[in-house]
């Protein structure tokens, strides 16, 4: 689904605005979502993706927003 957005809608946005870098964030929201689903469970990826998409609005500063690291509990009972 993300790949379809990147292929069609993102290309249409570039065609209409003439600006290939019109995203407020780096990485772009679609790339961020895709990486979240690669690096996290589906529930966490959906949460991070939704949080990122909701933060994309005209009053947001944007900028560099890295994908959260996958935090797995460590076993310290050695």
Describe this structure in words.
The chain is mainly alpha-helical and 78 residues long. The chain is 51% helix and 5% strand. A two-stranded parallel ribbon has the order 1-2. The longest helix has 16 residues, at 2-17.
Give helix % range: 40-55%
C-alpha geometry: globular
State mean pLDDT (0 to 100 scale): 77
Percentage of residues in strands: 5-15%
Structural class: mainly alpha
**So what's the oligomer here?**
single chain
Low-confidence stretches: 73-78
* Number of contiguous helices: 3
**Radius of gyration, in angstroms, nearest whole number:** 15 Å
Largest sheet: 2 strands, parallel
> What's the number of extended β-strand segments?
2
**What spatial order of strands do you see in the largest sheet?**
1-2
Task: Output the helix-strand order.
Answer: HEHHE
CA-CA gap between termini = 43 Å
Keywords:
78 residues; two-stranded parallel ribbon; single chain; disordered C terminus; mainly alpha
Secondary structure elements and pairings:
Layout lengths: L1 H16 L7 E2 L2 H11 L2 H13 L8 E2 L14
Parallel strand pairs: 1-2
Helix pairs in contact: 1-2, 2-3
Summarize the structure.
By secondary structure, the protein is mostly helical.
